[in-house]
Specification:
By secondary structure, the protein is of the alpha/beta class. The chain has eleven helices and 14 strands. The strands form three sheets. Strands 4, 5, 6, 9, 10, 11, 12, 13 and 14 form a nine-stranded mixed sheet that branches. Strands 1-2-3 form a three-stranded antiparallel sheet. The relative contact order is 0.09.
C-alpha cells in the first residue's frame, strides 16, 4: 500500500450535532493506538492513526460548535500537544514506508520475472514431451510399415512363381534332354542330375534357359529394403503395397499449448526437473468492515471471568428491576484488543434504560491507567437479549470511537441469556448517526439490518479481569 492510499485511509469527518466530548475521547483513543503500533514497529498502522489523529485535532474539532466551551480547554490543549508528537513521528515513519513500498515493488517485479521464466520453462518442457511423443508414434508407424512391406513382397514373389505349400518349387522346370529323369520322391535322390560333366547344368523353361546356380539364388527371399529416412519418402517409393494391406497412418493430435498443472497427478512426470519455490502469493480475503488503521477488524479478547463478575455486581439492580452498565476497558497488543478491566461508572437507571452521569471521571481513570474503551456491557432485568432503539444510539457513540467496539447484553431471566452485538457499517452506523427522533424509544428504517451478532469475532480466554466500581 503506497503513501497516497494511507493518506486516504487517514481521512476523517465529524458530525457537529454530536457532543464534542465524544470526539475528544476518540482522538485520545487514536493517539494511544498509534503509540502502541509505533512501539511494535507496525509503521503502516501507526502512520494512519497518527495522521488521522492530527487531522481530527488540528483541522476538524476546532470547527465544532462546542470547541470554545471553557471546561473542555484543558483536554483540547493536551490533545494539541500530542498532535506535535504525532506530526514528528509521521516525519520519522514516512521515509521508512516509502522505502518499504519501493522494496515491495521490487519484490513483486522479481516475483513476476520468476513466474514468467518458470512458465517459459514449463512450456518448453511440455513442447519437448509432445515432440518426443510424436516422434515415438512415427517410429512405431514406420516399423509396422516395414513389416507389412516385407510380408507383401514375399507373398508377391511366391505368387509370381506359381508356388504353393504342396508343390515342389522345381516341378515347373523341365531338363534340356529326356535322357535324365529326376526322382524327387526320396531324400537320397539329388536335387538335379545331368550327364554333362560341366559344373553348371542347363534347364529349359517355357520361355527361357537358366543355369543351375541361378535357380538356387532365385529361391532365396528378397532382400530387406533399406530403412527409409522418413515415412513420406517410404510411401512415395513403395508403390507395390496394395490398399488391402496398408492404410494411412493416423494423423497425430495437434499439441495443446496450455500449461498443465504441475500439481496434477497426471502431469507430474512432465515436471520432474521444474521447481515452484516462488508461487504467486495468494491475495487476502476482503473484509466488510475496516479498522481505524485500515484492513479487517481486529479480534477482541474477552476474559472468561468478566460476565460472572458483571452478573454479581449487577445482581442487586436486577432484583430491583433496574438496568446496570459497565465500560469494557483494555489495551492493544499485537493488533488484538485485550479487555483487561470492567469499569462501573456513575450512572442512573430504570427498568429499560441506563446512562452514565460523569464521563470525565471515566476518561480520567482511563487516562491515568493507559486504558482504552473497547465497548460496553449492560443488563436487561426482565427483557430478552437484544439492542433497543436507545441501546443502538448509545453504542453508536462507542463504535464511532472504535469500529471494533462491542455491546454485550445480559438477560439473566431469558434464554439466550447473553449476546454480543455490533452495528453494521453500512447501513447501521449511517442510519443511527443520522437519526434525529426526539423520543428515546422509536423505530428505525431497516431495523433488522442495523446490528448483528458478532460473538464469533470475540475470543474468550481464561485470563482474569479487574473490576473497578466508580459509583
Amino acid at each position: 500500500m503506497d503513501i497516497k492510499q494511507l493518506n486516504k485511509n487517514a481521512e476523517i469527518n465529524i458530525d457537529h450535532s454530536k457532543n464534542l466530548i465524544l470526539y475528544l475521547r476518540s482522538a485520545d483513543m487514536l493517539f494511544k493506538q498509534a503509540n502502541i503500533y509505533y512501539l511494535e514497529l507496525d509503521y503502516k498502522r501507526a502512520y494512519v492513526l497518527y495522521l488521522k489523529y492530527s487531522n481530527l485535532v488540528i483541522s476538524k474539532i476546532k470547527l465544532h460548535p462546542q470547541y470554545s466551551i471553557q471546561n473542555l480547554q484543558n483536554s483540547i490543549q493536551k490533545l494539541r500537544s500530542n498532535a506535535i508528537i504525532a506530526m514528528d513521528r509521521i516525519e520519522i515513519i514516512k521515509p521508512i514506508l516509502l522505502k518499504q513500498h519501493q522494496d515491495e515493488i521490487n519484490k513483486q517485479n522479481d516475483l513476476k520475472e520468476s513466474i514468467k521464466k518458470e512458465k517459459e520453462l514449463k512450456q518448453k518442457q511440455f513442447e519437448f514431451e509432445q515432440e518426443q511423443k510424436i516422434l515415438k508414434e512415427q517410429h512405431e508407424i514406420l516399423t509396422r510399415m516395414n513389416e507389412i512391406n516385407i510380408n507383401t513382397k514375399t507373398d508377391d514373389w511366391w505368387k509370381s512363381h506359381d508356388v504353393n505349400n504342396n508343390s515342389n518349387p522345381l516341378d515347373h522346370i523341365a531338363p534340356v534332354n529326356n535322357q535324365t529323369q529326376i526322382d524327387y520322391s526320396t531324400k537320397s535322390t539329388p536335387l538335379y542330375q545331368t550327364t554333362n560333366t560341366n559344373t553348371t547344368s542347363l534347364y529349359q523353361t517355357n520361355d527361357t534357359t537358366i543355369h543351375q546356380t541361378d535357380i538356387s539364388n532365385s529361391l532365396l527371399p528378397p532382400p530387406i529394403p533399406a530403412k527409409p529416412s522418413n515415412i513420406h519418402q517410404y510411401l512415395n517409393e513403395n508403390t507395390t503395397i496394395s490398399e488391402s494391406h496398408v492404410t494411412s497412418p493416423p494423423i497425430p493430435d495437434k499439441p495443446n499449448l496450455f500449461i498443465p498443472n504441475p500439481n496434477d497427478a497426471n502431469t507430474n512426470n512432465l515436471y520432474t526437473n521444474i521447481t515452484t519455490d516462488n508461487p504467486p502469493p495468494i491475495p487476502p480475503k476482503p473484509d466488510l468492515y475496516q479498522s481505524p488503521a485500515g484492513g479487517p477488524f481486529r479480534k477482541v479478547v474477552l476474559p472468561q471471568s468478566l460476565i460472572p463478575k458483571f452478573l454479581s455486581i449487577s445482581a442487586k439492580n436486577t432484583r430491583n428491576n433496574l438496568e446496570t452498565c459497565g465500560i469494557l476497558c483494555g489495551k492493544l497488543k499485537r493488533n488484538m484488543l485485550f479487555i483487561t478491566t470492567l469499569l462501573i461508572p456513575p450512572q442512573t437507571a430504570t427498568s429499560d434504560t441506563v446512562s452514565t452521569t460523569d464521563e470525565m471521571a471515566v476518561f480520567n481513570y482511563q487516562d491515568q491507567n493507559e486504558l482504552m474503551t473497547f465497548g460496553w456491557i449492560h443488563s436487561h432485568p426482565t427483557q430478552s437479549c437484544f439492542l433497543s432503539s436507545v441501546d443502538v444510539h448509545t453504542h453508536c457513540s462507542y463504535q464511532m470511537m472504535l469500529p471494533e467496539a462491542i455491546a454485550i447484553v445480559v438477560a439473566p431471566s431469558k434464554s439466550p441469556n447473553m449476546g454480543i452485538f455490533r452495528l453494521t457499517d453500512p447501513p447501521g452506523i449511517d442510519i443511527v448517526s443520522s437519526c434525529r427522533h426526539p423520543q428515546p424509544f422509536h423505530p428505525h428504517e431497516r431495523e433488522d439490518e442495523i446490528y448483528v451478532d458478532v460473538e464469533e469475532d470475540v475470543v474468550v480466554d481464561e485470563s482474569d479481569c479487574a473490576l473497578v466500581d466508580l459509583r
